[in-house]
Amino acid sequence: MMLHWNLGYTIASLCVALVLSAIAFLRVFASRMNASREAQTRFRVLAEAIPEIVWTAEPSGSIDYANQRLTEVAGIQVDRVLGEEWLKLIHPDDRPVAAEKWQQALSTGCVYEIEYRVHSADGNYRWFLVRGMPMRDSSQRIEKWYGSATDIDGRMRNQQMLEDQIKEHTAALLEANVRLESEMRERALAQQELNRQNELMLRELTKRSNRATRLAKLAELLQSCNDLDDVFAVVAGMAPKIFSELRGTVLLFNHSRDVLEVVASWSDCVLPASVFAPQDCWALRTGHMHRVSAGDHTAVCKHIGNIDAPYFCLPLISHGEAIGILHFQCIGSVEPPESELLVAGTFGEQIGLSVANLRLREALRSQSIRDPLTGLFNRRYLEEMMERETRRAVRAECGLGVILFDLDHFKNFNDTYGHDAGDTVLRETASFLIKSVRAEDIVCRYGGEEFVIILPMADLKATAARAERIRTRLREMTVLHQGQSVGIITVSVGVAALPDHGTAPKALLETADAALYRAKREGRDRVVVADSPTVDPPTTDLQPNALGAAASQT
């Protein structure tokens, strides 16, 4: 009990020290502002923010300021205690000592510190620890007294209560000396229980600390992920380390948002299927965590199958929209504690944020490299890929084919059927080209009605054969606009390949463009393979070039 008393006194002293430190800071601040009106205003604003009674006094000892905390404690207005009136608030038994010590402090300039009872707003008296410090000028004359009053009524009452208890216990010990041995045994047992509780608490704190560290590591790894596959791998790897007593699964909506797909799982969490409908999960229906105890069949999610263990589901939310669910199953029949649920919520928030950020990044990337009308890669992406693929082909000493298409008489589609029909022709042509190439081939809309196909690992002969096959099949394609066919689609095609026509992106495209120009001059609807150059042009960055000359012949 004495330890509790000392602890209470120490806390009160610390509070007083903190308050006086704040006052000292305010004193220096006020001194540097040369006691200006602005400094006084700031001092009083800061003093009102302090949860203790703050007061100032003239060198003579007359109180000239007290913050509103005094009004809250004593229940009277501040102006009624200025000057020497503050003494009237003190308990009559404590008033002479308080006045004497105050006069002694004024005469000696020493710190004023005393404990006494002050009249409170409820009509009773409360104990306060009052301290005052003088502020001196350069000649060591006292300019101002700054002080505080800290409420220690609880500590004083506890002290009295503890003293009373000590007396009672002392009497009880004297009367019950014969039971000393039994009590010692009980204390030993209590100490053992306390040690056990402390050990459990230490383990729990260690567990929480380790979990917080792993959550921080998870956040760091998720921020470094380049794609969703990285995110799923990180989640599956970190989840068992964070949730040692839970197995789980992450399910995300597909692009059409009509089904949920399993994208990551850990600790042998098995669901009856890998695809579920959104209405199968109660967490998505309600919009918040859904928790089911073992044996409770009130509202069981359809996606969990036949399990008897407790489980819970969390909706993954990002920017106010559900993007999936986080499903946990308990390993055993013990219900997860509330702390586990809170950590699971943080875990889900990190996953949702990471998935949303990557999807946004992918969408922005797609918008920057895709043609909005056809969905094909645009010129910017073509330039990047030509640079990459030519370097790769030269390094691997393999071929690289380039096919340049231009729709014949494209202007007629717009003039005859309108620009909507022209857009339809471009979209259908783009869709056909995507279906006619290999997975590694790259189809781009270079501009207008011009298309480029890059064929990695293809030589000149294979590239020309592919171009002829595409040209022939395009003639067979029927494009409808408003239920009416727009006619036969023909293209003029120029073909070039690495290394036959150079090893630089610009050289390959210019050569293919020249072949396309020949195809148009020779009657259109044909494939022309470029002539081999006599000199290989130097490697330069891919820049807008003469490509488009053929378009002028359309």
In a few lines, what is going on in this structure?
47% of the residues lie in helices and 20% in strands. With 554 residues, it is an alpha+beta fold. Helix 1 packs antiparallel against helix 5.
Q: Explain this structure to me?
A:
This protein is an alpha+beta fold and 554 residues long. It folds into three domains: 2-157, Beta-Lactamase (2-Layer Sandwich); 221-367, 2-Layer Sandwich (Beta-Lactamase), CATH 3.30.450.40; 379-553, Alpha-Beta Plaits (2-Layer Sandwich), CATH 3.30.70.270. The chain is built from 14 helices and 18 strands. The protein has a six-stranded antiparallel β-sheet with strand order 8-7-6-11-10-9. Strand 17 (491-498), helix 14 and strand 18 (527-529) form a beta-alpha-beta unit. The radius of gyration is 42 Å and the shape is elongated. Residues 1-5 and 534-554 have low confidence and may be disordered.
What key attributes describe this structure?
Beta-Lactamase; Alpha-Beta Plaits; 6-stranded antiparallel β-sheet; 5-stranded antiparallel β-sheet; 14 helices; elongated; disordered N terminus
Strand and helix map with partners:
Elements: H1 2-32, H2 37-49, E1 53-57, E2 63-66, H3 69-74, H4 95-108, E3 112-119, E4 125-136, E5 142-151, H5 153-175, H6 180-223, H7 228-242, E6 246-253, E7 260-266, E8 275-276, H8 282-286, E9 290-292, E10 311-318, E11 321-330, H9 338-369, H10 379-396, E12 400-407, H11 410-417, H12 419-435, E13 442-447, E14 450-456, H13 460-475, E15 480-481, E16 484-485, E17 491-498, H14 505-521, E18 527-529
Parallel strand pairs: 17-18
Antiparallel strand pairs: 1-2, 1-5, 3-4, 4-5, 6-7, 6-11, 7-8, 9-10, 10-11, 12-14, 12-17, 13-14, 15-16
Helix pairs in contact: 1-2, 1-5, 6-7, 6-9, 11-12
